[in-house]
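Propose amino acids for all 182 sites.
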């Protein structure tokens, strides 16, 4: 073989030279899109006025299982109907239980967790009401825990950074290929 043939044989084809940058670009874009998509259920509802809570006890099972995320909309206490699922402050915790009775004269709710034997021991004053549960999504609680824990935040940032680096690598490989083909 002469030198010219050898150098052409060693040089990757135009199609083959674009495979790695394309693969890096697709992988990086998919990673970034997955990070963005996984953030949406935790961010968009907040812009629409909902509070978001992670269900950590089984008091509302089977309707609202442990690990669910509930979206709570603000509501006037007198508009809460019997049977509505409400979220309220109880000490340092937020509780999600069903309103059995709404005593508007006294300004309190009688509540009960669906899985509990009896009514809650204390009535819930109107002032502790956060709102009415408008919807819940099973298994999103794990995602919420990921985004709210310090370790989870580090993982998400690292994952997004990997996606961005793959996209940058794809760009550099393309530029290098253009310079080589000059």
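Proposal:
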């Amino acid at each position: 073989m002469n030198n010219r043939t050898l150098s052409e044989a060693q040089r990757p084809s135009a199609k083959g030279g674009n495979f790695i940058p394309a693969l890096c670009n697709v992988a990086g874009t998919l990673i970034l899109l997955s990070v963005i998509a996984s953030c949406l259920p935790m961010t968009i509802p907040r812009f629409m006025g909902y509070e978001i809570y992670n269900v950590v006890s089984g008091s509302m099972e089977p309707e609202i299982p442990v690990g669910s995320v509930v979206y709570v909309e603000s509501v006037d206490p007198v508009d809460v109907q019997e049977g509505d699922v409400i979220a309220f402050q109880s000490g340092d915790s937020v509780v999600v239980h069903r309103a059995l009775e709404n005593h508007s004269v006294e300004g309190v709710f009688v509540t009960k967790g669906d899985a509990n034997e009896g009514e809650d021991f204390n009535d819930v004053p109107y002032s502790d009401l956060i709102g009415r549960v408008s919807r819940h999504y099973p298994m999103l609680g794990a995602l919420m825990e990921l985004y709210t824990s310090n370790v989870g935040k580090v993982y998400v940032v690292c994952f997004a950074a990997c996606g961005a680096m793959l996209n940058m690598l794809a760009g550099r490989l393309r530029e290098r290929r253009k310079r080589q083909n000059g």
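Residues 6-10 have pLDDT under 50 and may be disordered. The helical segments are 3-10, 14-47, 140-148, 150-181.
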